[in-house]
From TrEMBL:
Alphabetical list of SUPFAM superfamilies matching this protein: Terpenoid cyclases/Protein prenyltransferases, Terpenoid synthases
Cofactor: Mg(2+)
GO BP annotations listed: diterpenoid biosynthetic process
Terpene synthase metal-binding domain: residues covered: 283-453
Stated name of the protein: (-)-alpha-terpineol synthase
Magnesium keyword on record: yes
Cell wall biogenesis/degradation as UniProt keyword: no
Domain of life, source organism: Eukaryota
Organism: Sesamum angolense
Keywords: Magnesium, Metal-binding
All copies of domain Terpene synthase N-terminal, residue ranges: 73-242
Length: 551
């Protein structure tokens, strides 16, 4: 996406060093993740007859294996999915949306601020707040102006309730309203610590802890909230919360709960139809059959998109990004697992040139992948050209060329047995983790109109933990703690850009999507490899969210 200027004079420039966002993605996993992110036509049909590898490529070289298992959800299972959520359910959902909307407006007029905030929080946690974005933004905007607007100094109030204060802080910050951390000062004692008497306020501590994750650099009070002292031990807090939640859950309004269940099942049906579409595309490419060493993870590749493009209206971006994810996964496995160094050089050269004739130098399995990618880029760009009249092929090609260049660098480090320094690793990995190529495509999929003058500033190479221990001489435990700190500090930078910055050139939807990509990455990798290896926990979550309706 970087450094290319089209005939329309549109230039999007990726920074030449790791940003806070990319540091987050890299370090969230404690290592560089398997680079999971994925309209190619039937590439295998086009190239199946081209089985005469160039004489430049070594015949029958020794190959490695990632020992990846087969997909947990086969084609026939996915095509057999048939939802019963038809027009009757859509009508009932429409009725419920109107009822909840009336209740939300009435709540604004008749109820306390705390009850209004709790209703908004319930709508968000149940995943149905997207139906009421305008109403919620208006209500929170009015609240912010009343309490924190020009000339207000609400942070000096001394009589506050921790629960409502933290809830108000979190909801406002999530919507981009700049609430000062000083509103929590009244809960600190003369030593500057949070008062031990708060230890029995379970609901308040939960809200305080969640609010702390919206901190920005230099906010010491929120740092203190995130690292609660022993009296607020997280294990103790979590046990209390598990007990408390049994009593809090019935408090959710029954209309809201009925709408949430129905909406979940309707959206799940949409996801299943999209998944059928992308799986059909995946079968047509012939990649799984012709590149059996690569991960066949189409369901996981689609699952990522549900966390990044969470609003149901983003059907097309989810479909395109699932395909993008699948292609990234396969190309990652080509570089990390299967290809010889000579083949990788030829493949990278073909990607840098974007010349179909360069395929003559490639073995058949690489031709299939190369042409699938080539067609995917062209077809994605074609849709944008039709809709917005802009030619984005140079930007998409540049993002892929950058990705493959960093893949080749890592392959060469591995070949040499070289462990890079942390700086070397990060300077390469912020691209190789594939966030830039995903966000380049995502921008063009959601920005409308596209701003023409935007400027955005299994034989793997050792990952971040190994690089750190090798360079510092520290233990694995010390490296894990270091990475944890890096993650925390990077989220502060992210919060600064996502919730506080007012001069971003990007649409707010794109900013949110970028942040959600970081969240989804942490979700998939924080407890291990949720993409490449058949992780039982992730498999269960995917099945629950995509295949099993709420009864």
């Amino acid at each position: 996406m970087g450094g290319i200027t089209t005939a329309m004079n549109m230039h999007l420039v990726i920074p030449n060093k790791p940003t806070g966002y990319n540091r987050l993605i890299i370090s969230s996993f404690g290592r560089k993740p398997s680079k999971v992110w994925c309209m190619a036509s039937t590439a295998s049909a086009h190239v199946s007859g081209l089985d005469h590898p160039s004489s430049h490529v070594q015949h029958n070289p020794p190959r490695r294996s990632g020992n990846y298992g087969p997909t947990a959800w086969d084609f026939n299972y996915l095509q057999s999915l048939n939802s019963e959520y038809d027009e009757r359910y859509l009508r009932r959902a429409s009725e419920l949306k109107e009822e909840v909307k009336k209740m939300l407006v009435q709540e604004k007029e008749l109820s306390s601020v705390e009850e209004l905030l709790e209703l908004i929080d319930d709508l968000q946690r149940l995943g149905i707040s997207y139906h009421y974005e305008d109403e919620i933004n208006q209500m929170l905007g009015c609240l912010y102006e009343q309490k924190y607007g020009v000339g207000k100094n609400n942070s000096e109030e001394t009589e506050r309730d921790l629960y409502s204060t933290a809830l108000e802080f979190r909801l406002l910050r999530e919507r981009g309203f700049i609430v000062p951390q000083a509103i929590f000062d009244c809960f600190r004692n003369e030593k500057g610590d949070f008062d031990p008497s708060l230890g029995h306020d379970t609901k308040g501590l939960l809200q305080l802890y969640e609010a702390s994750f919206l901190s920005t650099p230099g906010e010491k009070t929120l740092d203190l909230a995130e690292n609660l002292p022993p009296i607020f031990c997280r294990k103790i807090l979590m046990k209390r919360l598990m007990r408390a939640c049994r009593y809090w859950s019935p408090d959710v309004n029954r209309l809201v709960l009925e709408l949430a269940k129905l909406d979940f099942n309707i959206v799940q049906t949409t996801h299943q139809q999209e998944l059928k579409h992308v799986y059909e595309w995946w079968k047509q490419t012939g990649i799984a059959e012709n590149l059996p060493f690569a991960r066949d993870r189409m369901v996981e590749c689609y699952f990522w998109t549900t966390g990044v493009f969470s609003h149901p209206q983003y059907s097309y971006p989810r479909i395109v990004t699932a395909k993008l994810n699948a292609l990234i996964t396969v190309i990652d496995d080509i570089f990390d697992v299967y290809a010889t160094h000579q083949e990788l050089q030829l493949f990278n050269n073909a990607i840098q040139r974007w010349d179909v004739e360069a395929m003559d130098q490639l073995p058949n399995y690489m031709r299939i992948c190369y042409l699938a990618l080539y067609n995917f880029i062209n077809e994605t760009a074609y849709e944008v050209l039709k809709q917005q009249g802009l030619l984005i092929i140079p930007h998409l090609r540049k993002s892929w060329a950058d990705l493959c260049r960093t893949y080749l660098q890592e392959a060469e480090w591995h070949l040499r047995g070289y462990t890079p320094t942390m700086e070397e690793y990060m300077n390469n990995a912020w691209i190789s983790i594939s966030a830039p190529v995903i966000l380049s495509h995502a921008y063009f999929l959601v920005a409308n109109p596209i701003e023409k003058e935007d400027e955005v500033k299994r034989g793997d190479v050792p990952k971040s933990i190994q690089c750190y221990t090798n360079e510092s001489g520290g233990s694995g435990e010390e490296a894990v703690e270091y990475i944890r700190i890096v993650i925390g500090e990077t989220w502060k930078d992210m919060n600064q850009e996502a919730f506080v910055a007012e001069d971003t050139p990007f649409p707010q939807d794109f900013v949110r999507i970028a942040a959600d990509l970081g969240r989804m990455a942490q979700y998939m990798y924080q407890d291990g490899d949720g993409h490449g290896i058949q992780n039982c926990d992730i498999k269960t979550r995917i099945s629950t969210l995509l295949f099993h309706p709420i009864l």
